[in-house]
Amino acid sequence: YMALVKYNNNSISAVTAAASMSSGAMTLIKTLTASSSATLSFLNGSDSVVFDGTYPIYVFKFIDIHPATDGALFSFQTDTGTNTSYNQTMTTTFFTSIGSEDGSEGSLGYQTGDDQAQGTAFQRLMDIGNANDECGVGELTIFNPSSTTFVKHFISRVQMYENGNRTMDKYIAGYFNTTTALTRVQFKFNSGNIDSGKIKLYGIKDS
Question: Which end of the chain is more exposed for a tag (fewer CB within 10 A), N or C?
Fold first, then answer.
């Protein structure tokens, strides 16, 4: 049997090397910074190869997304090959928890009309106020977008300062109903520009 080894603070501080991180660690692929931008698009190109099958999981991080238009809807879509129509067919689900600053409102419910049933529109993620201190944050995960066998699932959770002075915690999920590999993702507001904010794309390798 193996004897127990007891460490004290001195022995731990003397450690000079540790095992390398697992292959499941997140790797930053690309960062896009908005500055009165109509859209932010991630696609295969000369500066970065986004969806080439290197990673089975891709995670977008939304950092302080701020709209030019009050209450504008931040949304996303995908496309295949070199197409730029961003109109892939998706089926989605959408529910929200809400809390207001004055305590007058608190609710949790499914949002019919914000989901899609074999729709091709941009999928709404969050609606954000455009006052100087208002913004939205969150993440979107897309699974195995390079697959040519299965549909492409995604899950998103976002949090925003809504223009009605409310906090909104939204959960959106669904799938793109295509077995063709996805090659690009675009984000935009339904009205006005993305005034400021960052979107970071990470890849997660098989663990």
Answer: N
- Residue closest to 124 by CA, chosen among 199, 174, 57: 174
Note the pLDDT tens digit of each residue in 163-196: 889 999 999 999 999 999 999 999 999 999 999 9
Structure tokens at 88: 């892939």
* Distance (Å) of CA 201 to CA 42, 48, 142, 170: 8, 11, 11, 20
Q: Which residue, among 54, 52, 62, 46, has the nearest Cα to 23 in the 3D structure?
A: 54
Better-scored residue on pLDDT, 149 or 206 = 149
- Supply 146's token pair: 């390079």
**Interval 117-140: pLDDT, tens:** 999 999 999 999 999 999 999 999
